[in-house]
Design goal:
The chain is of the alpha+beta class. It has four domains: 85 residues, Immunoglobulin-like, CATH 2.60.40; 82 residues; 146 residues, no CATH class; 160 residues, no CATH class. The protein has four helices and 28 strands. The longest helix has 43 residues.
């Protein structure tokens, strides 16, 4: 059996390709060789054999040892374990005999002197036997582990190949195959300091392997796809208004059994509608989840995945994981506070970064460190259709925001046959920082999906307006201790015999 050693591993997000190296002594001509070192978790269909110049190979196959082959491989160790167990049992029997012979009730022929001499020797002899038994058991524990390891190894698959050498000699060979019990996950860290105009985006790798063997002195290469998780900063969805149409049930009788039967039918119809709606609502998150995980990976200069070749060699014990640094990128940014008071009473410290710098970071979790202190976890979800992205750095407790409704008044417009509701809100933002900061406040107006619903803004306080989605955005500076108020007001008019609903 030609033994091989794991020398390199290309680790993917799921599974890895391992490369093993060894040396084989060949005679001139063709011979069949066995190559060991495979693990139980290999994908046999991915096996490849590499031979140097002057050697050719054919008929490469993966074989599994028979029971007889396994017993033969363990024959010597099995004999050692049995012999050691026999020595332990014999010493235990001798100790038991010494203790049994200390009972002189059935031995009247012994003199008092003989009994006294025996009892005097007994403790020393039992102590010596106990020490010998303990040492033998300790030796057996080591031998049992060696046997267990050898038993696992004897059951592992191996490679057979017909190798033809032009000349006799010792030749290097390599085999590669896919190992399923290994993977890595990216770990992103954001190191920020609002006193500067940049942040550090650090990528680390958490590598895990459970192949059944310890990796020692292995060269590692990592290949990555696109991690995906959920979001962090609240984001508003457009609010649409439409005319509400109540369900109409036909052919209802005025009373009696027919009315009761039709009411049951109507209730059944309502139940079916509700169940269908519930099923549709339940399906929506699953559809979103499928969409999140349907990415095709990260592109990098024509490749489908980014490749990271780690320097040096690495040790990873079986069933363990390691964390290593891959790279750190300094990204220019603008620090400011972001508030979405309609959805949250919190303000968030954010770093505005060019979206093009985060094109590989869709749905990516990251740990945030502000001036070296851990500040929480966020998720990067850049919208690649926009120039800039607000990268959340967590809640900013030094900025307070409040959204208060000042008016909601509904009246009839008689000449137009309409109802009209006037809404008015006031947003208050205050700073407790010791320096001037930039603040961005986000809100929205509803969007009309029908011509009969008319929405008119009354007061926007100079907000930037994204009319298609109804989003509003105010950007201003706050001095230390300063408070600023923003007013938002609009009206909604619709036919008075209808009612509106938000969707």
């Amino acid at each position: 059996m030609v033994e091989t050693k794991l020398t390199a591993a290309a680790v993917y997000r799921s599974g890895c390709i391992v490369r093993r190296s060894g040396k084989v002594s060949l005679q001139k001509g063709t011979q069949t060789v066995r190559i060991g070192g495979l693990t139980a978790g290999i994908d046999e269909s991915t096996l490849r054999l590499f031979v140097p110049a002057g050697v050719s190979g054919s008929n490469v196959q993966v074989e599994h040892p028979t029971r007889d082959e396994q017993r033969e491989a363990l024959k010597e160790l099995t004999a050692k374990v049995a012999a050691l167990q026999g020595r332990i049992e014999s010493r235990e029997k001798i100790a038991a005999l010494w203790e049994a012979n200390a009972d002189f009730s059935q031995k009247e022929s012994l003199s008092v002197g003989e009994m006294a001499a025996y009892l005097e020797k007994l403790p020393e002899r039992l102590e010596a036997l106990s020490s010998e038994i303990a040492a033998l058991k300790e030796e057996k524990t080591v031998l049992d582990k060696e046997y267990a390891d050898a038993k696992k190894k004897a059951a592992l698959p191996y490679v057979t190949a017909e190798l033809s050498a032009q000349e006799a000699g010792e030749y290097p060979i390599e085999i590669s195959c896919r190992e399923q019990q290994a993977f890595w996950n990216p770990v992103y860290e954001i190191h920020a300091d609002s006193e500067t105009d940049s942040l550090d985006l650090r990528l680390r790798a958490k590598i895990f392997q459970r192949s059944g063997e310890d990796w020692s002195g292995v060269k590692l290469t990592l290949f990555t796809g696109n991690p995906s998780v959920s979001g962090t900063i609240p984001e508003m969805d457009p609010v649409h208004l439409r005319i509400y149409e109540p369900p109409v049930y036909k052919n209802r009788a005025a009373g009696g059994a027919r009315f009761g039967a039709m009411m049951k039918t109507a209730r059944a119809d309502e139940m079916v509608v509700e169940e269908c709606e519930a099923m549709e609502d339940a399906a929506a998150p699953m559809m979103a989840m499928n969409a999140v995980y349907a990415g095709s990976g990260t592109a990098s200069k024509g490749e489908t995945m980014t490749e990271y070749a780690l320097s040096g060699s690495w040790d990873i014990r079986d069933g363990r994981e390691i964390i290593c640094d891959i790279r750190t990128d300094a990204l220019p940014c603008r620090y400011h506070a972001v508030a979405v008071p309609k959805l949250s009473d919190e303000a968030y410290l954010a770093a505005e970064v060019a979206t093009s710098l985060l094109e590989d970071m869709q749905d990516t979790p990251a740990a945030v460190y502000l001036k070296g202190a851990f500040a929480g976890n966020v998720v990067l979800e850049p919208d690649m259709t926009k120039d800039n992205y607000d990268l959340s750095l967590g809640v900013d407790e030094t900025v307070k925001v409040k959204r208060e409704q000042k008016k909601k008044y509904t009246s009839n417009v008689l000449l137009k046959g309409q109802k009209k509701t006037e809404y008015e809100y006031e947003i208050t933002v205050s700073s407790r920082k010791d320096k001037t900061i930039s603040v961005t406040v986000c809100d929205q107006l509803p969007i009309s999906d029908e011509k009969t619903i008319v929405i008119e803004p009354l007061e926007l306080s100079g907000a930037e307006r994204e009319e298609e989605k109804g989003f509003l955005r105010w950007t201003f500076d706050l001095a230390p201790g300063e408070t600023k108020n923003v007013k938002l007001a609009w009206t909604v008019a619709w036919p008075k015999d209808k009612r509106t609903e938000e969707v």
